[in-house]
């Protein structure tokens, strides 16, 4: 049913408009009695529970950052069967993001190119939303992904991240530092070990008791991935999220003219699967067994989730396949997860 709806209706809509329409439906699904029905349809088996970061996740599969940028759809996403929701990326200062159009489907590849640019309401606006969520819906596991405000110079990035962490960490089940989006100028330069170390140190102090993770790019050379993994352990972080979107365009089925017309931005979806899995294995080989590794990139089926778990992932996240699989995607993952 959803495949027909996507092919004949949703695929004809502007991708960003379609996303906002879907988010409206998701928000409705988070309110009783709709949430009761959704939860009854998507409940995961008890055996799927995962203990990590001092938390209990009802299922190892969650929603990656980028889908719910402003923490408005958590209740609905939870009702749809996702084991956790990582909101954001949230910046200290509110910002509109890059000019539109900035989101493009590559349907033959089941992929998306985005150059959203951290469009979000800012930490000050998101803080009371998270506070209400924690009070009214404490069962949801919520990660908060923070990034650098665009107007802040790279040399002032630490103070900017610390500002967001100070506000949001007390309300987060875990905090994720995003230094790997390709859509904010200069951001990926913060992944260099010499610049990343002081950033991790200061944000960890600001985060207090909240578990802290860092999200890395798939485009890093293998030795740099390993170096960041070892740095994260040395600085006392609780985990790594691997990976963000890629700037690569190799091996796509979509016509080259369509890809070129979409322009710059991060590619996500099925084409990222192989590299994301490679990075997962590199990270896992460089960190202790109890160190949390969240794998994201190219995940679409229960078998994909099982492959990541078998390769050493503690938890798994997805986003892009949600656009192609529809609202029962988390249920499909749960039912199709080999046990």
Tell me about this structure:
The chain contains 13 helices and 13 strands. It is an alpha/beta fold and 339 residues long. The longest helix has 15 residues, at 15-29. The relative contact order is 0.15. The mean pLDDT is 92.
Helix content estimate: 25-40%
- Strand segment tally: 13
- Main sheet: strands, sense, barrel: 8 strands, parallel
Structural class computed from helices and strand pairing: alpha/beta
H-E order: HHHEEEHEEEHEHEHEHEHEHEHEHH
Unreliable parts: none
How do the strands line up in the largest sheet? 3-13-12-10-9-8-7-4
* Number of helical segments with 4 or more residues: 13
Subunit structure: Monomer.
InterPro entries: Aldolase_TIM, DHO_dehydrogenase, Dihydroorotate_DH_1_2, Dihydroorotate_DH_2, Dihydroorotate_DH_cat, Dihydroorotate_DH_CS
Cofactor: FMN
Pathway: Pyrimidine metabolism; UMP biosynthesis via de novo pathway; orotate from (S)-dihydroorotate (quinone route): step 1/1
Question: Strands, helices and their partners?
Answer:
Blueprint: H1 2-8, H2 15-29, H3 34-42, E1 50-52, E2 55-57, E3 61-63, H4 74-79, E4 85-91, E5 103-106, E6 111-114, H5 123-136, E7 142-147, H6 157-168, E8 174-178, H7 193-207, E9 212-216, H8 222-234, E10 239-242, H9 256-262, E11 266-269, H10 273-286, E12 292-296, H11 302-310, E13 315-318, H12 320-325, H13 329-336
Parallel strand pairs: 3-13, 4-7, 7-8, 8-9, 9-10, 10-12, 12-13
Antiparallel strand pairs: 1-2, 5-6, 6-11
Helix pairs in contact: 5-6, 6-7, 7-8, 8-10
Supply the key terms.
single chain; 339 residues; alpha/beta; eight-stranded parallel β-sheet; three-stranded antiparallel β-sheet; 13 strands; 40% helix; globular; pyrimidine biosynthesis; DHO_dehydrogenase
């Amino acid at each position: 049913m959803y495949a027909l709806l996507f092919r004949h209706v949703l695929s004809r809509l502007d991708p960003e408009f379609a996303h906002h329409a879907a988010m409206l439906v998701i928000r409705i699904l988070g309110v009783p009695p709709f949430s009761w029905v959704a939860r009854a349809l998507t409940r995961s088996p008890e055996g799927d529970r995962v203990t990590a970061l001092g938390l209990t996740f009802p299922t190892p599969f969650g929603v990656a950052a980028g889908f719910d940028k402003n923490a408005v759809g958590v209740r609905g996403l939870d009702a749809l069967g996702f084991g956790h929701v990582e909101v954001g990326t949230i910046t200290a200062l509110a910002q509109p993001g890059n000019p539109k159009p900035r989101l493009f489907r590559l349907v033959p590849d089941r992929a998306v190119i985005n150059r959203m640019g951290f469009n979000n309401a800012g930490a000050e606006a998101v803080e009371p939303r998270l506070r209400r969520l924690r009070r009214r819906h404490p069962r949801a596991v919520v990660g908060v992904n923070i990034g650098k405000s665009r107007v802040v110079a790279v040399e002032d990035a630490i103070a900017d991240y610390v500002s967001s962490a100070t506000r949001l960490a007390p309300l987060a089940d875990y905090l994720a530092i995003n230094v790997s989006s390709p859509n904010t100028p200069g951001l990926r330069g913060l992944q260099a070990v010499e610049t990343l170390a002081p950033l991790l140190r200061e944000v960890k102090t600001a985060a207090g008791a909240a578990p802290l993770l860092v999200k890395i790019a798939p485009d890093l050379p293998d030795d740099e991935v390993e170096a960041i993994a070892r740095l994260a352990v040395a600085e006392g972080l609780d985990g790594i999220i691997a990976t963000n979107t890629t700037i690569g365009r190799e091996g796509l089925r979509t016509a080259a003219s369509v890809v070129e017309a979409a322009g710059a931005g991060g590619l996500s979806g099925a084409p990222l699967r192989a590299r994301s899995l490679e990075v997962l294995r590199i990270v896992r080989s460089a960190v202790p067994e109890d160190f949390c590794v969240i794998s994201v990139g190219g995940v679409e089926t229960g078998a994909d989730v099982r492959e990541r778990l078998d390769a050493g992932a503690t938890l798994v996240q997805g986003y892009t396949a949600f656009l192609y699989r529809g609202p029962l995607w988390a249920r499909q993952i749960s039912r199709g997860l080999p046990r």
